[in-house]
Design brief:
The strands form two sheets. A seven-stranded mixed β-sheet has the order 2-1-5-4-3-8-9. The protein has a two-stranded antiparallel sheet with strand order 6-7. With 172 residues, it is α+β, with helices and mostly antiparallel strands. It starts with 11 loop residues before the first strand and ends with a helix. Helices cover 31% and strands 29% of the residues.
Length: 172
């Protein structure tokens, strides 16, 4: 499992782009994790799946609500990562009103999730291999804070916890 002080693994995530521009085409676009995090502070949170109860009712809405405060604390971008395809993440982002606040990053084949060592096997529930629920503060590609939830819990990966860590990091 990835630890504080580790560099994020090489890999790619996809994001459904609603409006063409800034070098991105309409539809799914692929982003290199190392390039996308270089020189930036990223509030990254991951969850088991789009449109699932806790993820939709608490996890994503918390980051949407705290987006301005996170930016004031020095966060350049907020990423939501889930083992879903870019089309599903795009639709979920529209439903959650994340535009301009949270980037909905798809890890469709769970390659990134496996690389960080935070998989969750939900095969018995008909959901296959997913991501554990966690959050991390990433500064220039290096993990500076990491909050991994116990199975079935939502206590430490919330936006308020990561906001406090971002404020602490900025003040360090």
């Amino acid at each position: 499992m990835i630890q504080i002080g580790d560099r994020l693994p090489a890999g790619q995530l996809k994001e459904y782009i609603e409006v063409e521009g800034n070098g991105c085409t309409l539809g799914p676009n692929t982003f290199d994790v190392a390039e996308a995090t270089a020189g930036k502070t990223i509030a990254l949170f991951a969850l088991p799946g789009a449109f699932t109860p806790t993820c939709s009712a608490k996890h994503v809405p918390g980051y949407v609500a705290q987006a301005s405060a996170l930016r004031e604390a020095g966060v350049d971008e907020i990423w939501c990562v889930s083992v879903n395809d870019a089309f599903v993440m795009g639709a979920w982002g529209r439903e959650q009103q994340t535009a301009g606040k949270v980037r909905m990053m798809a890890d469709g084949s769970a390659d990134f999730t496996r690389a960080v060592g935070l998989t969750l096997d939900l095969t018995a529930n008909g959901m296959g291999l997913r991501s554990q629920r966690y959050s991390m503060l990433v500064v220039d590609g290096v993990v500076r804070a990491l909050n991994v939830e116990a199975p079935g819990k939502f206590e430490v990966s919330d936006a308020t916890t990561l906001l406090a860590q971002a404020r602490q990091w900025k003040g360090a």
